[in-house]
Design a protein that fits this description.
Elements lengths: L5 E2 L4 E4 L6 H9 L9 H10 L5 E5 L2 E9 L7 E9 L8 H10 L9 E6 L4 H13 L3 E8 L12 E7 L5
Parallel strand pairs: 5-6
Antiparallel strand pairs: 1-2, 2-3, 3-4, 4-5, 6-8, 7-8
Helix pairs in contact: 1-2
Length: 171
């Protein structure tokens, strides 16, 4: 489990999540619309089974950022970013970008050559966030339909577009 040092400008430390962080992460996601809130059990699993592909940002012992990600079993060279959350108290300081770059630089993820994620068409902030990651890494940015509204059944949920950043060159 890799961790990185303190970010002097924000007083934020990055590290892999621990099981004890699940409740704080759940609360952070709950306070971060338009992110979908999953069950607390889901965040327990992320903190336990996927801690090496997830990252937390902590300031003064409080979780202020979280990125959940995993390696899809059928795509071992791809990292799939599930959720990116930054607490309102530390927004507009490039924390999401710094967290994602820190995560992507882990030795355990050095084999990842592609980043994928899904985003709803109306989530312009997330679209621009991932476009900026592609620009920084001089990579192609593409989108394609992924999950249609119909797949969400009676849940009022927009379609999800698949975003692909490839190749995931090191900056």
């Amino acid at each position: 489990m890799e961790t990185r040092g303190n970010r002097e400008e924000t007083g934020v430390t990055f590290r892999a999540p621990r099981i004890e962080d699940a409740t704080a992460i759940y609360d952070l996601i709950r306070r971060s619309p338009p992110l979908d809130l999953n069950s607390l059990y889901c965040y327990l699993l992320l903190c336990d089974h996927f801690r090496n592909t997830c990252i937390t940002a902590e300031r003064e012992s409080v979780i202020v950022g979280f990125i959940s990600a995993y390696i899809p079993p059928e795509k071992p060279g791809t990292i799939f970013v599930w959720q990116v959350a930054v607490d309102e108290s530390v927004r507009n300081r490039s924390l999401a970008t710094t967290m994602l770059e820190d995560l992507l630089e882990r030795k355990s993820l050095s084999h990842a050559r592609c980043l994928e994620t899904t985003v709803t068409p109306s989530n312009r902030a997330s679209m621009e966030f991932f476009r900026s990651i592609a620009r920084t890494r001089d990579a192609a940015f593409s989108t394609e339909p992924c999950y249609s509204e119909e797949l969400f059944g009676t849940e009022d949920h927009e379609a999800e577009l698949l975003i692909r950043i490839d190749p995931l060159a090191r900056p």
